[in-house]
Amino acid sequence: MELKVFNVLGKEVSKIEISNEVFGIEPHNQAMFDLILSERAAKRQGTKKTKTRTEVSGGGRKPWKQKGTGRARQGSIRSPQWRGGGVVFGPTGMENYTLKVNKKVRKLAFKSGWSQKAKDNEIIVFDAIEFNHPKTSDFVQMLKNFKSEDKKIIILLKGDKSDYKTYLSSRNLGNVLAVPFKELTLEDIINSDVIFSSQEVLKLVEKGLE
Asked: Looking at the whole model, is its pTM more than 0.85?
């Protein structure tokens, strides 16, 4: 499979060959579904917490004697049935929401996502994404060159100092996500309209999924 390679002005400068095993497979919907569930579960902080009857303040004294009052027996005003009492079976703050996804399934899911993007012509490859100065206006002009200024954009970064100007130029745009390729999630891929990547970074993605 071949993709066109552009410069930041929107002009085609060459072509790049990409692997059919990564960018040309039939998308596997179940694998993608499983991985997105896992990614969403991993974002849950698990910090919700309710107090049990042992943690609620007060209630140390028995509210009335056991027998002879005509009322139901009670041991503490902080029992769960009392207003202001402890909570039964509430979140403890120790919940683990992790969902395991096998490595092969994870790879298959990413390959499926990338293949769908390639099939829909939503991957734009650059010879290099470089800016002389970190200016948002220069970045917006690049998007206009590809008629993508109103779309949800992902800019794939290499993850080192060479990306700094690109990151600074794009961070003020609400429709643009500049992210190192190693931190990219499948949900990011699916939700985007266009993915911008340099030849070098796209090859690193391909190598990681082979």
From this structure: no
